[in-house]
Amino acid sequence: MMPDLGKYAGTVLSAYGASIILIVGLVWLSVRAAKKSKKALDKLEQNDG
């Protein structure tokens, strides 16, 4: 169910591909930062108790 993009198909598909790669990268960086923050918070909470 692909629309006919004509002569712009390569440009449009490469833009979609780049966008998907950037979104996946941002999600990965966010998850990694959240895990790092949680680990640091857990360490601080253990030192308090």
Describe this structure in words.
This protein has one helix and no strands. The protein has one domain (10-48). The longest helix has 40 residues, at 9-48. By secondary structure, the protein is mainly alpha-helical. Belongs to the CcmD/CycX/HelD family. It comes from Cognatishimia activa. InterPro entries: Haem_export_protD_CcmD (IPR007078). Its main location: membrane. This is Heme exporter protein D.
Main sheet properties: none
Helix fraction by DSSP (H/I, runs of at least 4) = over 70%
The radius of gyration computed from the alpha-carbon positions, rounded to a whole number of angstroms, is 20 Å
Write down the overall mean pLDDT: 93
- Overall form: rod-shaped
Report the total helices: 1
**pLDDT < 50 runs, ≥5 residues:** none
Strand content: under 5%
Listing every helix as H and every strand as E from the N terminus to the C terminus, the arrangement reads: H
Distance between the termini: 59 Å
What structural class do helix, strand and pairing data support? mainly alpha
Number of domains: 1
Number of E-state strands:
0
Membrane topology: Single-pass membrane protein
Transmembrane segments: 12-31
GO cellular component, one term: plasma membrane
InterPro entries: Haem_export_protD_CcmD (IPR007078)
